[in-house]
Amino acid sequence: MRPTLALIKREFTAYFFSPIGFVTLAVFLLVTGRLFGVTMNLLTEPGPRGTEFPMQSLLGDEKFWLVFLFIPPLLTMRLLAEERGSGTLESLMTAPIRDWQVVAGKYIACLMFYVVLWLPTLAYLPVLLDMDPQTWQPRIDCWPVLTSYLGAFLAGAMFLAIGLFVSSLVKSQLVAAMIAMLLSLVFVVAAFWRPDYDTGSLTTKLVTFISVPEHFRRDFTRGILDTRHIVLYATITLLCLFLTVRSLEARRLR
Amino acid sequence: MIVVENLYKYYGEYPAVRGVSFEVPKGRVVGFLGPNGAGKSTTMRILAGYLTATSGKASIDGRDVFWDPIEARRRIGYMPESCPLYTDMKVTEYLKFRAGLKGLGWGTRRKRVEYVLERCWLKDVRKQIVGTLSKGYRQRVGLADSLLADPPVLILDEPTAGLDPTQIRETRKLIRELGQQHTMLLSTHILSEVEAACDSVIIIYQGQVAAEGSLAAVRDRYGNQNLEDIFVRLTGQEGVYSASASPGDQPGLYIGR
């Protein structure tokens, strides 16, 4: 336990030593802030235009996911690739720490920083929930917000696990980030051809099954928890973490 | 303390270590010599648990490095070649992190970090960022790291590579002092260092042990030459390995005659 905690602490604080953490945070907040402004406009629109689900215009938006695509790979790219590149992996792997503890420590650290990314967005909630200024009670249904945050956490966990696995395979951070983006693209880009599909076809079913933006647009941001999405995210997360442990083990056998 | 039996390591088709066996008794300081590419680093990495041997056995204090890796690693302070460190941390920060990684509790962590800072003359750079340190200081940080958990065995891969003469002298002095408390296996290219600091030597060439024994015994076997001549004789000639292929002949013994 102690080695894992020490590793989590070191990896988490390392995000604040390098500019990459702050740059990611700034970009993320710029985009969510801009989308919050758009949502605000829709909410205060006087005419027939407006929005039924404010979270949908925030997280169900393609622009958000195109930017989001870059964020997990930027957080995970250095985790193992940097250690391999600079040779510090040797001192890490010869310490009395098990391979799965190394993976767990690094993964938990990047997951924690990912949560930190989302924390400032809690400031939008009083408006999105139309909270009563006196009693702090939300005046509209709060479930879409809760499910959206849960969805964002689980989907992020999946993208981070993919990034960590890729990072364990290569020596260069840049290559790690690019391959991780490519793999994440599979889960993001399918949704962008949405209008071209016949809604009853197998392709549509497949696309809606793996496309994370679609999950958000149709389910999470409307307060629906679909177990299929959660199972998909959880299995891919576990698979990637398992593969990362194996890839570290395989390194010893070279 | 360190027992290696018939160790083999193949990198793909290439055999880096072929049938190395030796033993380092408790309290001994052993110099591990050999030309570049002879298999020194590979052997040390197997002992430290970074690589897995293709076949053969290695154990530290009775703990097999393959079957009981965590317990074996707990008993080793290992300093890798060229001493990689996290360059973005401060010296004390780095050492505290390493102490945590080695499972030391909060109280002992602070005590041990203070002790190794003192021991490796790092007190005046304790607040400095590792990336800004000179090569000599970095090497000392690596050495301090290997001492953190107070392991009975130290495995140091070229601890004096790339240092200037003053730093080499200081490091050598430190190694000699540490040799009184720890069993030590240290690889180096500086032969005078071995003569100054080690009790015995293991010379390895093309993945096999070419000579092994106490300094005096090895010298005696080769007609009282100095270590450098013996080293060159054992490892400088192309014929050595092919000669050893004849059955029953140890390469070192063959050349000695």
From TrEMBL, chain A:
GO terms for molecular function: ABC-type transporter activity. It comes from Limnoglobus roseus. It is found in: Cell membrane. Keywords: Cell membrane, Membrane, Transmembrane, Transmembrane helix. Its main location: membrane. It is a multi-pass membrane protein. The keyword Hydrolase does not apply. It holds the Pfam family ABC2_membrane_3. This is ABC-2 type transporter. The keyword Cell membrane applies. The chain crosses the membrane at residues 12-36, 64-81, 102-125, 145-167, 174-193, 230-248. Residues 65-190 form the ABC-2 type transporter transmembrane domain. One of its GO terms (cellular component) is plasma membrane.
From TrEMBL, chain B:
Pfam families: ABC_tran (PF00005). The keyword Disulfide bond does not apply. The keyword Nucleus does not apply. Residues 2-231 form the ABC transporter domain. InterPro entries: AAA+_ATPase, ABC_transporter-like_ATP-bd, P-loop_NTPase. It comes from the Bacteria. PROSITE patterns: ABC_TRANSPORTER_2. Keywords: ATP-binding, Nucleotide-binding, Transport. GO terms for molecular function: ATP binding; ATP hydrolysis activity. SMART domains: AAA (SM00382). Belongs to the ABC transporter superfamily. PANTHER family: ABC TRANSPORTER, ATP-BINDING PROTEIN. This is Multidrug ABC transporter ATP-binding protein. It comes from Limnoglobus roseus.
